[in-house]
Design a protein that fits this description.
heterodimer, A: alpha+beta, 4 helices, B: mainly beta, 31% strand
Chain lengths: 301, 605
């Protein structure tokens, strides 16, 4: 202990001397802003902010450039380095994993009842994230009607919006991959919006716009209107899609947040196929207008 | 010890050793052996003397019906009171018995920077199983506190009070003293809290606006808030019921009683050691005379209530003349809960606690659409802006004279119908990096040091505000600032990003705020967010520019009210690297932190 204290004292005593030595070496031309009388008279043109040397190997303790390193002179640069790296990373570079089941629901409707999933999640920091999405639906007793997964790079481009780009793979029907570009975020008046365009490997261009709004009835009871519109730049007969507006969905869901992460809901959703898509549906013997009564679960972790 | 005891058979020797070791082991508290999950007692016991040992260890804390993991120091939450004497040396010996690194920061204490206890800035941290000795000879007196500066350990119990008794007579006469250390307990892991803050805007609030609330908001005002994508209830990021609010480690159900005798002058040393909570502190029926702020003596000022920001301290004197019991009520600023204790002349005597008042709401003033008036009040010499250097992040700024705090409260004068730009980044100086991390720019930030704190501007009794604080001693040699700098407090509520000048600490750690040795710098903090931030500078006191001239109060932590500015003068006479950050724990963790590098004096040996 005594030895420790003694060596510490020696170090402390040495530190300012070190500082001075270095400043004389590297910064002889600079006047340190020291006493109040002289401080303001320092020639600041020599301390150009833009010219600050970052990552200089060994700048003197508390010189006017370079990283803070006064503690290096006391405890050693090797001892300080890992804690400094950890400190910076801990204060702002937190990486988060988030998974949300936005809609996992049973859909009662005319004919066979169906089901739907709509999940998303991300891993990343404040500005850059890997974002994934998947949705699909079907009727009980029949093969999966539609399903897709998306893998996206998501970049914060504004306080409330991310730009997202990546790929989408369809899991049903004819094999299709798509390039994706879209935006996701919060519109004024608190509308959550997700809008994306898809260019398939067959050259087909489609788009999807989703918007939802949370109206709190109480702290836990939330009414959520939701709208989705699918668009196509061309007719895609193989998929039963006409050009223009493919379909519109309007939904209303009432959920109860037992905790914010876990909220069962009931609701109703109406879908209309329009234009060419409506004609394709009729030809296939399907009803272009479907009303579903839904019960489901919204969760995240 | 008798002679026969020295003549032991080998067998008896073994037996005796076993007995001895068990006798030693049994009274050994769990914390001293580094055991996990031992029960944690509630503070606060006192330690003093030439050597003080602190053992940091895991434990299990309980209050009311809740319990959870805690980090206890010497087996208690809060940890022990460290009682020092001005001018007398002590060795503070910190033993880390956790399985992760730890640290102790001595909040408000003047000491060589390498003992300040911030891993990565002042020292490498204390490894598991290691010991760190801090030789300290106090150069000050007053009420302070200590806490971990590692990760989020402060949230889970790693904190405690410090009292430094003055070398001479205390100018404040009192008969009895009590510590009132305010904090929070939650069984939720702090990393879970941080994640919920990041992904779920308003996660912890159970006071959000809804279709059935009672808030005095018109439909038009509600639409305005929605249009801005902000919430007028966004007052505390984390609150009750997630938090149980504590006084000296005691929750409201724990019935903490603090004694007095009628007629005594009782000094309450109030310390806000919470991670995230501003408290409205009062003892209904008992006026408080404030005699110290952040450990520094101030001219006595009598109030009925005060709002204390995270990391601040206030010493008050109360004088209950008759026998009875008084409620010590510390209501969280968002009024979701209350820390409670009883000041009583007889054990078991109950006090009536006031009900939680209606939650306050943010207003246009909190968005920086502050008042029109900009009256004077500061007697400081005007600054020559040509003298500012690069580190001053130079740009002209208006003088820091405080405006009338209430001048901005005229809601009718505001344009509520839309059209205003909540985020006019052209108003920001070049030093601020704009980007997704900034969701708001205060359009007309006013000095609001005359504001008593959210929700206390309309109460029918006397409330403290910063302009009422006058240092007890006059500063005869008050220096005019050599230069000025302006620093913006920036954030994005939705993404839970917090920073200085739009840059998180993770991005600017290698580019500290630099001061020469013994400079006199005027620092203006501009809050471009709708939250009040308690900004703490390590290692040095600053003087709050509050219009009190030669009696500007010295502080280590200053609340910058939402959408406003606060200004301090600091003499940078403590060389080394120091932390500078928002003391809301999760704001700091999100990046609202910087290093302040003070150059070493030339010619020092």
């Amino acid at each position: 202990m005594r030895l420790f204290a003694a060596s510490l004292a020696a170090l402390i005593a040495a530190t300012p001397a070190l500082a001075q030595d270095h400043s004389q070496m590297d910064h002889g031309g600079h006047q340190m802003p020291a006493a109040p009388e002289t401080g303001p008279e320092v020639d600041h043109s020599m301390i150009d902010h833009g010219a600050m040397g970052h990552g200089k190997p060994a700048s003197p303790p508390n010189s006017l450039t370079g990283p803070p390193n006064a503690a290096d002179a006391i405890w050693g640069a090797d001892a300080m380095h890992p804690s400094r790296e950890a400190l910076y990373e801990e204060h702002g570079d937190m990486q988060i994993f988030w998974f949300q089941g936005d809609r996992l629901e049973y859909r009662a409707r005319a004919g066979d009842d169906g089901y739907l999933w709509d999940i998303q999640g991300y891993y990343g920091g404040d500005l850059d994230k890997f974002w994934f999405k998947s949705e699909g639906e079907g009727s009980f007793g029949e093969p999966l009607e539609s399903a897709e997964v998306q893998a996206l790079y998501s970049r914060a481009i504004a306080p409330f919006f991310d730009l997202q780009a990546g790929v989408r793979q369809d899991l049903t029907g004819p094999d299709r991959s798509h390039a994706v570009i879209g935006v996701q975020g919060l519109m004024p008046y608190m509308f959550e919006v997700d809008a994306a365009a898809f260019l398939s490997d067959k050259g087909d261009l489609t788009a999807r716009i989703e918007a939802e709004y949370d109206q709190r009835i109480s702290q836990r009871l939330i009414l959520q209107p939701r709208a989705e519109i699918n668009l196509s730049a061309q007719e895609i007969p193989l998929l039963g899609i006409g050009s223009g507006i493919d379909n519109i969905e309007l939904g209303l869901r009432l959920r109860y947040e037992i905790v914010p992460e876990f909220a069962p809901y009931v609701g109703v959703e109406q879908e209309w196929k329009l234009g060419g898509s409506r004609d394709f549906a009729r030809l296939a013997g399907e009803d272009p207008e479907v009303t579903s009564y839904v019960v489901g679960l919204r969760f995240w972790f | 010890m008798t002679k026969s005891n020295l003549l032991l058979s080998r067998r008896r020797m073994i037996g005796s050793l076993a007995a001895l070791s068990s006798a030693v082991a049994l009274p050994m508290p769990a914390w001293s052996m580094g055991q996990m999950g031992g029960p944690v007692r509630k503070g606060i016991h006192e330690l003093s003397g030439a050597k003080i040992d602190l053992h940091i260890a895991d434990g299990r804390f309980a209050t009311g019906s809740r319990s959870g993991h805690a980090i206890a120091v010497n087996g208690t939450v809060p940890g022990p009171l460290i009682r020092l004497k001005e001018g007398e040396q002590t060795i503070l010996s910190v033993h880390n018995m956790l399985d992760v690194d730890s640290s102790v920061h001595w909040h408000g204490l003047l000491l060589p920077f390498q003992f300040d206890g911030v891993p990565g800035i002042s020292f490498p941290g204390i490894r598991p199983g290691a010991r760190f000795d801090v030789p300290l000879t106090p150069r000050q007196s007053g009420t302070y506190w200590w806490h971990s500066h590692s990760g989020l350990q402060e949230q889970v119990g790693h904190y405690g009070p410090i009292i430094i008794d003055p070398a001479g007579p205390d100018p404040m006469q009192y008969d009895r003293e009590h510590i009132i250390l305010l904090s929070e307990f939650t069984p939720m892991h702090p990393h879970a809290i941080m994640k919920k803050l990041k992904v779920g805007e308003g996660y912890f609030s159970m006071q959000k606006t809804s279709a059935t609330d009672d808030y005095p908001l018109s439909a038009e005002e509600r639409r305005m808030w929605g249009r801005m994508r902000m919430m007028p209830t966004d007052i505390a990021d984390v609150s009750a019921p997630t938090y149980s609010y504590l006084i000296n480690g005691h929750g409201p159900d724990d019935g903490l009683e603090l004694a007095y005798s009628p007629g005594e002058r009782v000094r309450l040393r109030i310390i806000n050691g919470s991670a995230m909570t501003f408290f409205n502190m009062r003892l209904p029926g008992l006026p408080m005379t404030i005699v110290q702020a952040d450990g520094q003596n101030v001219q006595p000022v009598e109030v009925d209530e005060l709002q204390i920001g995270v990391a601040e301290t206030y010493d008050v004197i109360v004088t209950p003349s008759a026998a009875g019991a008084f409620a010590i009520a510390a209501e969280s600023m968002d009024r979701s809960g209350m820390a409670q204790a009883v000041l009583t002349s007889q054990p078991g005597c109950k006090a009536a606690f006031p009900a939680l008042r209606d939650p306050p709401l943010l207003s246009m003033v909190d968005m920086g659409h502050g008042g029109m008036a900009h009256d004077g009040g500061s007697d400081d010499a005007p600054m020559d802006h040509s003298k500012m250097d690069h580190a001053a992040m130079g740009h002209a700024m208006p003088d820091a004279a405080p405006a009338d705090a209430h001048s901005g409260h005229d809601m009718a004068a505001m344009d509520m119908s839309g059209g205003m730009d909540m985020r006019d980044t052209a108003l920001l100086p070049d030093t601020v990096k704009t980007g997704p991390g900034i969701d708001m720019v205060a359009m007309n930030p006013q000095d609001r040091t005359g504001y008593p704190g959210l929700g206390l501007d309309a109460v029918p009794h006397r409330v403290l505000n910063y302009r009422l604080l006058k240092s007890l001693a006059m500063d005869h040699h008050k220096r005019a600032p050599d230069r000025e700098m302006e620093l913006h407090l920036t954030g994005n509520m939705e993404r839970y990003m917090w920073s200085f000048d739009g840059r998180k600490f993770s991005a600017v750690g290698d580019d500290p705020i630099r001061f020469g040795f013994d400079e006199r710098v005027r620092v203006k903090l501009v809050n471009d967010t709708m939250m009040a931030h308690p900004i703490h500078l390590h290692g040095m006191f600053f003087e709050l520019v509050n219009g009190q001239g030669h009696h500007q109060p010295k502080k280590h932590t200053v609340i910058v009210q939402p959408g406003s500015s606060a200004t301090f003068d600091v003499t940078t006479d403590e060389p080394g690297d120091w932390a500078f950050h928002c003391h809301l724990l999760y704001h700091m963790h999100a990046g609202m932190m910087q290093t302040v590098s003070v150059a070493f004096p030339e010619g020092a040996s």
